[in-house]
Structure formats: structure tokens, C-alpha cells
Amino acid sequence: MHPVFLETFGCQMNELDSELVRGQLTTLGYRFVNDPADARVVLFNTCSVREQAEQKAYSRIGIVGKRKAAGETIVLGVIGCMAERDGVDLLRRHPQVDLLCGPAELDRLPQLIDNALRTQSAENAMVLSQEERTALAGNRSRRSSTLAAAEDNLETLDLSRAFDEQAMGGARRSAQVRITRGCNKFCTYCVVPATRGAEIHRPPDHIVEECRRLADAGALEVTLLGQTVNHYRYEHGLALTVDGRQAAQVGPGLRAFRQSPPVGSRVTTFAQLLRRIHDEVPQILRLRFVTSYPRDFGDDVLAVLRDCPRICKYLHIPAQSGSDRILKLMNRGYSRGEYVDFVQRALAWVPDVCIAGDIIVGFPTETDEDFEQTCSLVRELPFKNNFIFKYSPRPGTVAIDRFTDDVPDAVKRLRNNTLLAIQSETSRRVHAAWVGRTVDVFFSEVRAPRLRGDGTPEMRGKVAGSHGGVIELPQLAAAHASNDRTGRSPRADGLDAVSTCWQAIGRTSGDLICSAIANDEASAKEMAGKIERMSILASGPLLLRLGTLPSRF
Ligand code: SAH
Ligand code: SF4
Ligand code: F3S
Q: How far is the CA of 384 from the centre of ligand 2 (A)?
């Protein structure tokens, strides 16, 4: 019954891994605590994608290290991408770390924790060998002989998922399911192919079954995860395990995406997988997927998006840059023109589709002209949002060896801020086009009002309805609109009075963030995990303002 504290950094893959680790350790009798001070085992599930992400983990490791130096008995484990990237070097530099476990080896984590606990509690504490402290894939995951074995173990980990409250996101009723592991793309800046290994596709039957069980446990929303989900492709009849189950399989070459599967062939494409889940698990009211890759995204997937009402009309499809020269140096495999064509094709098939992405600024040799190309892309295309990152050179990538990180940090920062401002205008435009429409909103969280020093809500502006729970937003919005001399639509972000109320926050099918005002905390909380049809009254760069919440009385 050892108490465990687990903190997760990085992307949704890591969140899902943490959930699986939690399930696995809970089954073995460990119990999870929310405060590292109460834990006998402290685990950090780490990310390596940018240096900043690693810094965070190192500072946490430092804090636990100090406690250990002061005499506390703690097992400190570093798991995830940073463990894999840094490898045993990390143990040398941070002797307070007891164990390392890479993302492809998580099925071996319980053994490592057990080893560490037993040594620490032994009378004559012995020193564990490196093998007893580490589970890293190293280059092994790229060697096909052992790949199948490693993946079968991981498949077992995914399959052993506990279908409980945690799995389906608690009150949020939102779960994640992995369809592909690893990545075969080798963008020159990116550490993921090194930390997560080769692209492996899970058998469609396993995926559909996992979705079904999550839906049975109460999930309304399922997000399918992969680094490049549209490259999902499973060839049936290729590999079976001893007991006749389907096995995970290595991704095919890119040529496979240039043509449709021959008639009668036993291939499950990404489009077919989506349709299967949509049709076979209708209890899932929202089926989403991230991340899409701007190349090899067929019309078959767009047709499924158009035709299947429960598949979210949302594409997270990072452009990374608007400059052809930089895209080439990044090895992204598409040009700006091809990216623009893709977005136009997506909008033609699915007019309501919402497009989001990621962009890197300050890639080596990026000039003002290159950056201007990125700015104009963000002005031209209707991106609902973009995550913008400053280029961070990562050990083990092609870019760090091939190019000097020659864009000064001050320039990166300036470009980052410039692009954020442009994106904000684009978001404002995209959002404004939705005002007046009625949408289904899936509520997931609650935002507390801003509080005064004495802890009571600061209720500036006219917030009506102290009895029975309805707040008249239109009046507020109108009041603000009349103050806005530019004549633009009421700016949701400027509605001061609104931010002083309880709000229920949710998302449309296209992932547009929405806010509804609630009269009190209970009314806002009650919305979590519900889908409501609501009208959009106002908009700003960050979110859409909804009409009044249905009263809970
Ligand atoms: N598979 C996804 C992205 C995974 S990493 C895709 O290809 O779109 C998430 C994001 O982190 C990337 O889209 C990229 O914008 C950013 N990123 C990755 N490596 C980076 C680096 N070295 N420096 C800055 N940003 C980086
Ligand atoms: Fe990294 Fe590129 Fe793979 Fe995305 S597609 S994970 S950016 S290598
Ligand atoms: Fe980070 Fe690994 Fe995800 S490097 S972004 S946690 S795949």
C-alpha cells in the first residue's frame, strides 16, 4: 500500500500513459496521493520536446533530491520521453534518481519500482545494477527483430486499462485512446521519433473494443491519439500472436498513402477506422482525433467527417511554418501551397470544419521574409488557434547537428509575440462568424469568479438573478457593445462583469471554447460532462459567449 505521487508533463500521449501507469499500479496495491510530501514513491512522467519542458522536470527532481539528502526515504522515478532521451546519463548527473523508464517500456515499471523499494528497505542497502534500475528502448525499438515482442507487451498495457472513473475523465466524461505509437516522419527539429520509437499501429478490433468499454463506463467523448493519425493503416492477416489475437504492427512506407487500398484487400485505413468507431459505438457522442499531418490526408477522411454527425469537425493539423524554404529544412514534406490547398479542400468538403495547428518560430536561418510568410499564412487561413513555439534545439535531432541555432532569443520572442497578435485577430474573425448560430456545447470545466481580498465574489457590472439562477447576458453584452466605439461585435474578453461570475466552460464540435454564465458554483458544476444545444451571443479572440445556462431549479 505504498503511496505514489505521479506528475505528468508534456502531451496527451503522456497523460494517457500516466493513466495507464496509474491503473497498473493501483491493481498491484499502490495508492495514489495528491501531495508529493505524502508519497513513498515519486514519479515524474516527463517530456523532451523543448528544453523548457525538461527544465521543469529537472527542477522537480532537484526538490525531491533535497528531501532525500535530508534523510527522507523516497523512491524517485523518471519515466517518459526525457528518461528515454537522456538515458543513463541522467542517472549519472542526478544520483538521487532511482529508476528510469522510457515510454515504450512502461509495462516494466512495476518491476523497477519493486526493485527500488526492496533495496531501500533492505537492512544492508545494496546497490542496484543499471539493468535493475532502467527500462529504456534505446535503439532496440528500431530493430525489427525485437520490435514485435516489445510492442506486444505495450499492447498488453493498453489492453489492461482499468475502465473506471479515471479512464473516462471523471465528471468530464472524456477519454483518450491510442491508435498509433511513435512516429516515422523525422522532422529535423523533433525528438519524438527518438523517444517514442517507430510508428506502430494498434489493431482496429482492440481500438474499437477499448472505445466501447470506455463508452460503457460513461465516456461521451473519445479522442484518438497518434502523432500523425491520418497515417493509421492496419493490414489484416499479417501478424497474429500465439493466442490468435491481432498484434500491433509497424507502419507501412509513405507510398501506401498515395493510393486507395485495392478492392477486396484487408486493410483498415484511418477513414475506415473512424467510420467503424462511429457506427459501432454510437454511445460516443463526440469522436475526435489528434494530430493530423498535412500530407497524405485523403478525401476519404474528409467524407467521413462530413457524413458522420458524431465525429467532431475539428482538425489539429500543424503547418509549422509558412515559408517553403523553412518547411524544406524542417523536412516536413509539403509546401506552403500544398498546405493552403489542403485547408481549402477541407473547407470545401466540410464547411464548418475548424482548423488549428502548431507553429515554430525562429527555426535556424529563419529570416524576416520567411517569418513574414508565416504571418501571412496565419492572416490568410481561418485558424481558430495556433500553438506557437520558439525553436528549441534538441539533442539527438538532425537540426541540432546540421544547423546553428542562429536566431537570437530576443528575435524569437519578438516573432512569437507578433504571431500571437496576428493569431488573436484571426481567432477574433473566426469566432465572430459563429455569433448568432446555435451549437452543441460539451461542458467540461468550471471557472471561478474573480474574488475580492476578503474572498467574496467581485460583482461589478449588472449581474442579475440572485434567486433561481438566470443571468441576462444579452443586456450585459449590449451594454458593452454600446461602449465599444469601434463598432465591433461585443468583445467577450472585455466583459469584465462576466469574468466575475461562475462560468461553465465547454467546447463545440469544432473545439471552439465557449463560456456560459452561471448563477452559482453548483449550477456551473452541474454542467460538466453534459452536452447542451445553445446559441452564441458574442465572441472574442479567446472564446464564444453563450446564452443563459438552463436554471438548475
Ligand atoms: N506530431 C505532431 C507534433 C508533435 S510535437 C505533428 O507533427 O504535428 C508538438 C509540437 O511541438 C510540434 O507540432 C511543434 O510545433 C513543436 N515542437 C516540436 N519540436 C520542437 C522544437 N525542437 N522546438 C520548438 N517546438 C517544437
Ligand atoms: Fe515530430 Fe514530425 Fe513526428 Fe510530429 S510528425 S512527432 S513533429 S517528427
Ligand atoms: Fe513530449 Fe514525448 Fe509528448 S517529448 S510532446 S511527451 S511524445
A: 21
